[in-house]
Amino acid sequence: MIGDINYLSSDKYIPIIIHSKHDNSRNDVLSREEIKKIIQKESPDVDAEKILKSLEEFNAMDIMNKEVRLSYNKEINRIIISVIDKNTNEVIREIPCKELQNLAKYLREEIGNLYDQKA
Q: Nearest-5° angle of CA 24, CA 63, CA 32?
């Protein structure tokens, strides 16, 4: 259902940038090259290396007490940008928001159902 956001807390997310505060031994952490491949596949005109370098530089600054993390949602095949409070580890904002992620998942499922019914 569209309003159900509990699925987002499951294993459908793959963290792709993990910083020193986090456990880097996790199996689902993607390498820098895998991150670049995803970015280049989704947006070929974008300089993935420049994005990753800028992200690392932003996270190195302690000025705003915030951290930006990227994750990959396997169900909707999209990179998710999260702004995290460094002190509380609380998600302040996600782009796209959880509601849009749920909508995308729902639409993918329904398009699949419609296609299966026509075939």
A: 30
What does R_g of the chain's alpha carbons equal in angstroms? 16
- For residue 10, what are the CA distances in angstroms to 62, 81, 103? 30, 17, 17
Q: What type of residue is 84?
A: I
CA 113 to chain centre: 26
91 neighbors 83 (Cβ within 8 angstroms): yes
**What angle do the packed helices 48-60 and 32-42 form, to 10 degrees?**
120
**Enclosing H/E stretch for 87:** none
Residue with tokens 């749920």: 102
pTM to 2 decimal places: 0.66
Residue 55 CA: distances (Å) to CA of 19, 61, 65, 67, 105: 11, 10, 14, 9, 27
Q: How confident is the model at residue 107 (pLDDT cuts 50, 70, 90)?
A: very high
